[in-house]
Specification:
Layout lengths: L23 E2 L14 E2 L11 E4 L4 E3 H4 L4 E6 L6 H18 L5 E6 L7 H11 L3 E5 L2 H10 L4 E3 L10 E3 L3 E5 L3 E6 L5 H14 L1
Length: 207
């Protein structure tokens, strides 16, 4: 059964689909998951993803191999995001529940692009609201930047007179990573939970 998620969103955030946005287009399929893939990344799926070292929501330093031990949907965002991030992650959580109810062992990973405010403690509260199988990841500014660059994401803090209250423009894709294959596809936020679950399930079954 799909869990019901209540997301309280306030205000608007300007989200720039930079970086990967210009690289994703409909067209030629990569080999291996041709029957599942809806998009193609210029340069091939091997150009996205890679090693990272971050800090999880329990305060433990982890590497990508520690985190991605089963199919994982990764989202880059921040907990102070007023609407887009909670809505997107709620959608991902609903899709995950559809798959979990079908017997699929998967998880969600939320990588903060706002490490100044998103401490492990803040992330722990965020992921506890979102989904029991969600991992929150943060780190130093350098660690976060390296992870973002690996996945070709974009983020930039907006100027603000208050150092504690500012918005961050960022990429809003969700990335599917499989332990044996690495990054396999990227999903836009317009997908419904049902459509996302179907596409993710196709990759997992094909793997």
């Amino acid at each position: 059964m799909i869990k019901t998620y209540t997301v309280i969103a306030a205000g608007l955030v300007a989200v720039l689909l930079g970086g990967l946005a210009s690289m994703v287009f409909f067209g030629q399929r990569d080999e291996g998951f041709a029957q599942c893939r809806q998009t193609t990344v210029a340069g091939g799926s091997g150009s996205i993803g890679g090693p990272f070292e971050l800090v999880d929501h329990t305060g433990r330093t982890v590497r990508d191999t520690d985190v991605i031990d089963r199919p994982t949907l990764i989202y880059f965002g921040y907990t102070f995001c007023p609407d887009v991030c909670p809505l997107d992650n709620a959608r991902n959580a609903q899709a995950a529940d559809i798959l979990i109810d079908q017997g699929v062992d998967m998880q969600l990973a939320f990588i903060s692009i706002d490490p100044a405010r998103d401490t492990p403690e803040v992330l722990a509260e965020f992921v506890s609201y979102m989904h029991p199988e969600m991992i929150g990841l943060t780190g130093s500014a350098e660690q976060v930047r390296a992870a973002s660059q690996a996945y070709k994401t974009y983020y930039a803090a907006q100027e603000s007179d208050d150092p504690d209250y500012y918005l961050v423009d960022h990429t809003t894709f969700s990335y599917l990573v499989l332990p044996e294959h690495g990054f396999v596809d990227v999903f836009r936020r317009e997908l419904t939970p049902e459509a996302l679950a179907e596409q993710v399930g196709c990759f997992i079954e094909a793997a």
